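Lab notes, practical 5.
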Amino acid sequence: MGDEIAINQKSENIWEIPKSGKMLVSAIIYASEALMNKIKEDKTLEQARNVACLKGIQKASYVMPDAHQGYGFSIGGVAAFDMEEGIISPGGVGYDINCGVRLLRTDFTADQIHEKRKELLDALSQAVPPGVGKGGQTKLSKEELFDLLKKGSKWALENGYATEDDLQRTEENGCLDGADPSAVSARAISRGLPQAGTLGAGNHFLELQAVDEIYDKEIAKTFGFEKKGQIAVMIHCGSRGLGHQIASDYIRLMEDKYGHKDLPDRELINAPIKSDLGKKYYQAMACACNFAFVNRQLIAHWVRDSFKKVLGTSDGMDMVYDVCHNIAKFEEHIVDGEKKQLCIHRKGATRSFGPGRIEIPEVYRKVGQPVIIPGSMGTASYLLVGTKKAEEISWGSTAHGAGRVASRAWAIKHYRGEDVKRQLAKKDIEVKAGSWKGLAEESPQVYKDIDEVIRVSDDLGLAKKIVRLIPIGVMKG
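Output from the prediction step:
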């Protein structure tokens, strides 16, 4: 297809790679000029164009404002596929299946917890071990893990780790239908067994945050936020080794069965949605998705427990919402004026449904789905609300974070963890890290400007900003 990519600016914050060559649809990129300059530095645009060549793709290959190069699909890539003609691709979901974010609101204020932040982070790191390969305090037998993979957060509810309210305020009610543990390899099971209730490493975190700005008081109140300085807890993690192994297993199986000679990129290996292998991947992916929901639920349970130990109470620590980032789901959308079921791939993208959708918890259905977009360490995070506009222009999707601009290897060469900790201390942010290396890899300088990502999402109507949250305490793997 050649290396030169023709790209036109359609309007402010909207760019298009017109359909050409083997592309079945165009590619649409949502970004400001500043963000586009960053996006152009890697293979994101090439990946967006390649996705537009996949069988059964509908409307366009979409790219969100925080996009950067990923495996097959860019991170920040969204695509929908026809259920009969289309495909399902592990590269369109990602290795960390259902990496996602959970937000808890509290009745505490920043003044009340300021002197207790270090004690809180110490208690949290005892309860929720961060770092690569770390095991959690919830020990499972293989039979219990199989039950968990099928039931998702219902398993947590049955075992005393969740409330009904927690499940209602989790995407898919904490359980993606169709999970079948028989589709998961023994290696994936063994990797997942010790890891329920663990944070992991990389960009995963547990943050104590304070409300910095409220943009819509009524919707903020519906979501549980009423004043500046109010404390929230944000949990960002996924399906750990289990999800990673499932991705690796099915990439290999699909390559063995279908090959990649007709693909623009071998990383876009896939299977027809209705094929036996496509169905098996979905069943295994749903298991990883359910594991991730439980992982965040267990962490939320230990967070409440830690607050109770350190501050005397966990009353008022209610779920706001829990969103998925890396997932393929069957959803109903409007195509050419008709309702149609599609397989939506969101790779490093957040669902952003507007008011009225049945998938939204009843308590939020009149205002729209809560959308949680975390910043990079030391920068703001945002709570937004989904829109009808997003359903029209991005299959109800928006950004999932700030988006990297440099690799972890580059970050380690250019930053020291000790320096990052000092920088954060100057901002009055308490940090608890599993390693200096982990801090260096996640230095705020290796990410795009979260405020600009949110501004573009808000301007385009991909999601409307409701609350800005700033970190006051960070726990990293």
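Observations recorded by the TA: The chain has a mean pLDDT of 94. The first helix runs from residue 33 to 39.
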